[in-house]
Specification:
By secondary structure, the protein is an alpha/beta fold. The protein folds into two domains: about 150 residues, 3-Layer(aba) Sandwich (Ribosomal Protein L4, Chain: A); about 40 residues, no CATH class. Helix content is about 35%, strand content about 15%. The chain has seven helices and six strands. Strands 2-1-3-6-4-5 form a six-stranded mixed beta sheet. Strand 1 and strand 2 form a beta hairpin. The radius of gyration is 27 Å and the shape is elongated. The mean pLDDT is about 95.
Amino acid sequence: MKVDVYNLKGEKTDSVDLPENIFAAAINVDLMHQAYQRQMANARLGTHNTKRRGEVRGGGAKPWKQKGTGRARRGSMISAQSVGGGRIHTPKPRSYFQAMPKKMRRAALRSALTVIANDQKIVMVDSFEMKNSKTSELSKALKALAGDKRALVLVPDKSEKSENLIKSGRNLAEAKLLQANYLNIRDLLSFEKVIIPLASLDVIKGYLG
């Protein structure tokens, strides 16, 4: 699959062949869904907590006598029927972790990359380096490359060359900067354009090729 390569001004400078085993792989929708569900589940903290009957303070004395009051029989004021009483079948802290083999995770990434390649959402850039950390300059470059669409920019690594780029993108609402080796199914499917510098393409080939 051959795609055009642009510079930061949005001008075509060259073309590049995308590896077919990554960007033209078999699309497995069920596998992508499983990988997405796993990522969302693993992001949950699981710190929700409610007090059950044994954890609520009080309830030592019988609130009123068993008979003769015309009221329902009660043995405690911390039962679930009472205001401020314990709760029944409510959440406690737990882990939502889901395991998934590495081969399946990477196959899901190949499927997602194939989908966005078929939808022409990939924008290849010859180099994405900035001399200064200026958000306005990065915003201008993204405008030229992606237009008004929200973009995911894959950064080759966290080196000194990428430092200005990473700093410039911290306050941008319409874009997200992500290291290429942290590529994930949720970010791939959440943005309208995926901007891939040639150096980031080499990183992707390294672990998906």
